[in-house]
Write a structure and sequence with these properties.
Elements lengths: L2 E6 L6 H6 L4 E3 L6 H10 L5 E6 L6 E14 L23 E16 H4 L19 E4 L1 H9 L2
Parallel strand pairs: 1-3
Antiparallel strand pairs: 1-6, 2-5, 3-4, 4-5
The structure holds a DNA duplex (12 and 12 nucleotides).
Pfam family, one: EVE
Keywords: Phosphoprotein
Protein name: EVE domain-containing protein
Length: 152
DNA sequence: GCCAACGTTGGC
DNA sequence: GCCAACGTTGGC
């Protein structure tokens, strides 16, 4: 079992959007970064727990919890010229980009703000607060996960 | 909107 | 393979 943090811009897709899907399952498409892709392809497994994180918004932080219900498979939006995630260099023989499906578990009563997370000495080494943490999919270790969940 | 910190691209 | 230019991310 592994733990992750998936970033999303709530203006585009928020925790509420995820919660409002009837079966609560959504494919996490549009990841166009090789390191994040490698995680999705090789490391993210069924049952892994995922913090949902809102970025580029008023209340930046962790907003809820989801679970991986389908492991890495081909992200179809890379072949769709109409999609903003279209990648003309990708072919169906050799798809470049992957995605996983996640299932909504719960939304936290209160957003665990980045500002607050930065003040927690217990998890000062978390990837999220390190310099240059631009990955949209970040691994979270078990201690960090348990600690943060305990704050929600 | 600004800007730091990356990641990607492409000419050589 | 190097590296400058460019594009993107994301907090503020």
């Amino acid at each position: 079992m592994q733990y992750w943090l998936f970033k999303t811009e709530p203006d585009a897709f928020s925790i509420d959007d995820l919660a409002n899907i009837p079966d609560g399952i959504e494919h996490w498409d549009g990841i166009r970064n090789y390191q994040a892709r490698n995680y999705l392809r090789d490391v993210v497994k069924l049952g892994d727990q995922v913090f949902i994180y809102h970025s580029s918004c008023k209340y930046v932080g962790i907003v809820g919890l989801a679970e991986v219900v389908k492991e890495g498979y081909v992200d179809h939006t890379q072949f769709d010229p109409e999609s903003k995630y279209y990648d003309p260099k990708s072919t169906k023989d050799k798809p470049k980009w992957m995605m996983v499906d996640i299932h909504f578990k719960r939304k936290f009563v209160k957003t665990l703000l980045l500002k607050e997370i930065k003040t927690m000495p217990e998890i000062s080494e978390i990837g999220l607060v390190k310099k240059g943490h631009r990955l949209t999919i970040l691994p979270v270790n078990q201690n960090e996960f348990a600690w943060l969940l305990g704050k929600c």
